[in-house]
Amino acid sequence: MRFNGKTAVITGGSSGIGRGTVDLFLREGAKVVMGDIDTDEGSAMMASLGDDFHFQKCDVTQEDDVKALMDTAAEKTGGIDIVFNNAGAGGPRDSIDEISGDDWDFAMALLVKSVAMGIRHSAPYLKQRGGGSIINTASVCSFQAGFGPVAYSTAKAAVLHLSKVAAADLAQHKIRVNAICPGFIQTNIFAATVGANREETNQINAVLGQAAASAQPVARPGIPDDIAQAVAYFASDASGFVTGTHLLVDGGLLVGNRGSWDPEEPGILDAILPDHLK
Ligand SMILES: NC(=O)c1ccc[n+]([C@@H]2O[C@H](COP(=O)([O-])OP(=O)(O)OC[C@H]3O[C@@H](n4cnc5c(N)ncnc54)[C@H](O)[C@@H]3O)[C@@H](O)[C@H]2O)c1
Q1: 25, 104, 152, 184: which is the annotated catalytic residue?
Q2: CA of 156, closest atom in ligand 1
Q3: pLDDT of residue 213 exceeding 80
Q4: The pTM is what?
Q5: Is residue 18 within 6 Å of ligand 1 at its C-beta?
Q6: How much of the chain is helix, strand and coil, in % rounded to 5?
Q7: Per-residue pLDDT tens digits for 160-180
Q8: Atom of ligand 1 nearest to the CA of 224
Q9: Is 107 near ligand 1, meaning CB less than 6 Å away?
Q10: Helices 224-235 & 16-27 angle (0-180, nearest 10)
């Protein structure tokens, strides 16, 4: 019960990583206020998760919605201690030589401005509590090309840097800011990005699970609870001396090319050297 007496605001909690984090934080004693555009799922969660959970419709691209979410959380529970700026989607898939300015702006509003405004409008409440912890969802895409669209990857790199700069700004108020960088996690984000229906979504998730397990050293797909556990570490007192940094939770996806970790795969030297020089 690491979060007894604490209030956590979580965005994008109707599905995937956010949903896994809502569940863990409730199990650990927090009051959770969750904002999402998926009102059907949010309302269903309100009906089933009990009095410590509150859902409010919130489109994180809209600053007024983000502010209203923070105001409601403080009003309903007496204050805010933890904020998980997590809502997101794959956004426009166009390459850099084709993307429109409007699509670019939308990706930045959804993935970067949303986080900045989440920090901006929760900070006054965290200050009132004498400090707190903010966790932002970045990605393996923050570091490398090839895992997501160009606008998404650029935005996730910005989330990483925003987390560092905000940590420096807010340290004087005992507010810590860190980023979490998931690898391939089995959620609906990939299917949602291409507009798949329910059946296609299940198929995509099954294939993704297998593909992720064979693409990384830890040979299983990531699940939302893998990320929730890392968020809980940043949110808890165990990380009291940790700010302005990030945690990769990717099953080792970024550890190196396949030859560096798979005994079945020839390393670069194995591949290029003639047999008598190996
Ligand atoms: N799944 C992965 O492999 C992965 C990897 C790296 C980073 N991420 C990031 O993790 C976060 C959560 O994604 P997920 O994988 O759980 O996906 P998901 O699709 O399961 O959940 C995303 C949630 O965000 C909500 N959302 C989307 N747009 C919104 C908006 N404008 N306002 C409010 N809510 C909105 C959706 O309704 C949904 O509930 C995202 O920021 C995503 O970019 C995911």
Answers
A1: 152
A2: 43
A3: no
A4: 0.97
A5: yes
A6: 50, 15, 35
A7: 999 999 999 999 999 999 999
A8: 16
A9: no
A10: 50
pLDDT of residue 41: 98
Give the phi and the psi of residue 198 in degrees, each rounded to 5: -60, -45
Burial annotation 116-129 (CB, 10 A radius, 16+ → b, else e):
bbbbebbbebbbeb
Is the pLDDT at 206 greater than 90? The verdict is: no
What's the gap in Å between 262 CA and the centre of ligand 1?
31
CB 131 within 8 A of CB 122: no
Residue 138 CA: nearest ligand 1 atom is 7
Rounded to the nearest angstrom, the gap between the alpha carbon of residue 221 and the centroid of all alpha carbons in its chain is: 16
Ligand 1 centroid to 13 CA: how many Å? Answer: 8
Q: Has 233 been annotated as catalytic?
A: no
**Residue 92 has what pLDDT?**
95
The per-residue pLDDT for 261 is 87
> For position 278, what pLDDT does the model report?
76
201 or 120: which carries more pLDDT confidence? 120
Identify the structural domains of the chain with CATH numbers, from first to last: 7-277 (3.40.50.720)
Pull the structure tokens for residue 115.
Answer: 């986080």
Residues 6+ positions from 5 with CB-CB distance below 8 Å: 29
DSSP per-residue letters across 78-133: S---EEEE----------TTT--HHHHHHHHIIIIIHHHHHHHHHHHHHHHTT-EE
Q: Tokens in use for 70?
A: 């923070």
Ligand 1 geometric centre to CA of 260 (Å): 31
Is residue 260's pLDDT more than 90?
Answer: no
**18-34 residue pLDDT tens:** 999 999 999 999 999 99
